[in-house]
Amino acid sequence: MNFNIIHKIETTSTNDEIKLLLSKENPREFTTVYADFQTQGRGQRGNQWKSTHGQNLLFSTLLKPLFLKANKQFTLSQIAALCVKKTLDEFTEGISIKWPNDVYWHEKKICGMLIEIDLVDVYVGSCILGIGININQTDMNGFGPNPTSLIKIINKEVDLKQVLDLCLQHLDEYYTLLKSGNESKIQKDYCESLFRKEGLHPFTDSTGTFNAHVQQIDPNGMMHLQLENGETRQYAFKEVKYVIDNNKI
């Protein structure tokens, strides 16, 4: 696919740039804006995304999946996470997807996302995939409790445009699967890529901290956990948290 890629030296956020385009014209699918610096980069739960100028890959891509029913919108989160995982797999081992769409290297976060969706009746009218991948930044202060970057993993700088091109290629592959109705392949790849998919690990919810393993993630995004005593619990996004050990690599 011939992607429409727009480069900005500085912007409030790349998601904002896509929204501005949507307000003025009818940009085609896979219109992508990437920026050297965001003054108001955002993550999930309203968190700020802090990045040094020109060191990380900050981009947003527009999709228009009018074929996709609103109750299946979680698949967009899945393909976004998978495209980043598949890209980073080309540089290093140990990459996984932390539900719902953070990307990790072992116990450390290397990528976060902000996905914004507009509905048209019962379908998804447009979807902005906002993705930030830590690439060449070595000073990770202000990036949360457990950040890492590709340069810290492989000890060499990587061309940001190369990573962007790979991400878009993998996104196109998974989006083609989605359009063809092959949601089972997306679900399979997503579940096989999950962070901490083996063994018991600590989680916390409104009742406290407990050990469990990830039994499955529903196509609608619900997480099923099985506790040590055999009890199973289901959670929507934000209802449960992983307990992260910041001392682990």
Number of helices in the DSSP assignment: 5
Shape: globular
CATH class descriptor name of the largest domain? Alpha Beta
Strand order of the largest sheet: 1-2-3-7-6-5-4
Overall pLDDT score = 92
Which second-level CATH architecture of the largest domain applies?
2-Layer Sandwich
CATH topology of the largest domain: BirA Bifunctional Protein, domain 2
How many strand elements? 12
The largest sheet, given as strand count, sense and whether it forms a barrel, is: 7 strands, mixed
Helix content: 10-25%
Radius of gyration: 18 Å
CATH superfamily of the largest domain: Bira Bifunctional Protein, Domain 2
**pLDDT below 50 for ≥5 consecutive residues: which ranges?**
none
**Which band does the percent of strand residues land in?**
25-35%
The SSE order reads EHEEHEEEEHHHEEEEE
How many domains would you count in the coordinates? 2
| Distance between the first and last residues' Cα | 38 Å
